[in-house]
Amino acid sequence: MASYDVVVIGSGIGGLVAAGLLARYGRRVLVCESHTLPGGAAHSFKRQGFTFDSGPSFYCGLADPTSCNPLREVLSALGESVAAVAYDPLGHYHFPDRTLAIYGDANHYQASLAEISPQAAQELQALTEKMLAIYRPLGAIPTLALRADGWLLPLLAQRFPKAMVQLLPQLRGLGRSMGDFVDETVRDPWLRQLIDLECFLLSGMKAHETVAPEMAFMFGERATSVIDYPIGGSGAIVEALVRGLKRWGGELRLGTHVDKIWVEQNQAQGIVLQTGEHIRADQVISNATLWDTCNHLLDEADLPQKYRQKFLSTPAVDSFMHLHLGIRAEGLEDLTIHHVVVHDREQDITAPGNTCMISIPSVLDPSLAPVGHHVVHAYTLEPYAGWQRDGDYGEKKAAKAQPLLRALQRVVPDICDRITLQLIGTPLTHQRFLRRHQGTYGPAIAAGQGLFPGCRTPIKGLYRVGDSTLPGIGVPAVAASGILCANSLVSPREAAALLDLQTCKTPLNASERP
Asked: For a designed S-S bond to 228, which of 24, 84, 386, 489 qualifies (C-beta 3.0 to 4.6 A apart)?
């Protein structure tokens, strides 16, 4: 029987981060991925010469050595990096009556907003100062220093005393919603709607449901680092994490479906594959969602009933409709990468089809599309309920894609005449290929409604990473979840040694692996 120190179920960003770091710490690590492609919701795929991002397309600080991006910290620790191209403005928000350019540079952003509402620009500056007051002490503590056990606070107090002192006045703000800060600072209705939109884009929820530190990091990174896009798309990030895993001796098995987590007497023993093969491990990390971990990977008797019920009652963010297009690019020389279209300002921005996100990354990386073409990715919220693969499935897909096409026409009016390739994804597509409960992208735990479950479980030796462990459904949150989990499985001395190497910018090489 094969045996490892750690087996990770799933190769999403959280799983690969945890696996790579544990391999870096000298553990024997195996990652089992059911799909034939690694990356989970962040994987890339190719069709007819086009390279598509399946999920995230907005990144910050990937190539900035001073960035607080957890993913950048991990790649550096693994001796890897990704090439990225910086850009600004970071995007355009299209409302029925106007279009607003959104900048990373605070002065440009406020100037853009002042053209619509001088009051909004002033209030945004005041709100930004409050967010940066939270960000500065948090940003002074590398995510690589964090862990999810009782060693955390003593270690932070010892290594980062100044940041901890600066954080004390902000402790109340850490538990508040972004809406609380908006209510204190913002009266302009236009800006209030804009902040709701930005919270929704980051967390899947509006300002009063989004925790303030999550937005503080967005404000801070946008103001102090660079907005950049990885050359090669999101798949380039996944490839770098896989290289880092293998560099330090870890293994990745693709097309390897895990049927069950093997549990005996409340202790994880390993995993059982769909083929019947048993693999023993001292620790098992599930990168599946909390719902899939409970419903599919564990037997009902494995978890205490109270814990299981609490897990399964966690509300989930809706799934998405996705539209992936290949289009002819002639005459589109001034096209920019990111766009958000709100069809109706009177309708809730979270209503399915009302807010549409658009990414055209080939404007920055032409290698993602054949010569003379662009690659387009558009998506919008879509509930799972009511979807089934029946005789009307194709017709329903086409109808639900119409709000996305209408949004794209705000950016490229004749886009329907330019399409050479069209792929439509539904909640069922997400459920099938990403093996995610109802195609969701994570929990919808509103600020003040309880803590996220974290990486620990009641089963000894079983841990979790990914978007259902920390606030935020984006890449930084899932990368941070992998860091916290990995560091919690090694001694404080081991974690401190790796942190020292990064602080001193000591070059890493494979010969350093224990």
From this structure: 84
**Whether the Cβ atoms of residue 75 and residue 240 lie closer than 8 Å to each other:** yes
Give the sign of the dihedral formed by CA 82, CA 87, CA 88, CA 94. negative
In this structure, what DSSP letter does residue 303 have? S
pLDDT surpassing 50 at residue 512: no
Provide the pLDDT confidence category of residue 510 given band limits of 50, 70 and 90.
very low
Q: Closest Cα to residue 109, out of 210, 207, 195, 230? A: 195
Give Rg (Cα) of the chain.
22
Q: Is 449 exposed, middle or buried (0-12, 13-18, 19+ CB in 10 A)?
A: exposed
Give the other-Cβ count within 10 Å of 235's Cβ: 22
CB environment 137-166: b (16+ within 10 A), e (fewer): bbbebbbbbbbbeeebeebbeebbeebbee
Q: Which pTM does this prediction carry? A: 0.94
Residues 339-358: tens digit of each pLDDT: 999 999 999 999 999 999 99
pLDDT digits (tens, 9 = 90+) for 443-493: 888 887 767 778 999 999 999 999 878 766 688 889 999 999 999 999 999
Higher pLDDT, 286 or 66: 286
Model confidence pLDDT, tens digit, residues 403-439: 999 999 999 999 999 999 999 999 999 899 888 999 9
The H or E element spanning position 87 is: none
Half-sphere exposure of 91 (CA within 13 A, CB side): 21
How far is residue 96's CA from residue 396's CA, in Å, rounded to a whole number?
Answer: 26
> Would you call 427 helix, strand, or coil by DSSP?
helix
Which residue stretches of 13-116 are H helix? 13-24, 70-77, 106-114
What's the CA gap between 201 and 114, in Å, rounded? Answer: 22
Token pair for residue 136?
């500065």
Closest CA to 119 of 192, 218, 202, 214: 192
Phi, psi for residue 491 in degrees, rounded to 5: -70, 155
Residue among 92, 341, 125, 90 nearest 228 (CA): 90
Q: Rounded to an integer, what distance in angstroms lies between the CA atom of residue 271 and that of residue 461?
A: 12
What is the rounded distance in angstroms from the CA atom of residue 155 to the CA atom of residue 410?
Answer: 51
Amino acid identity for residue 209 in this structure: E
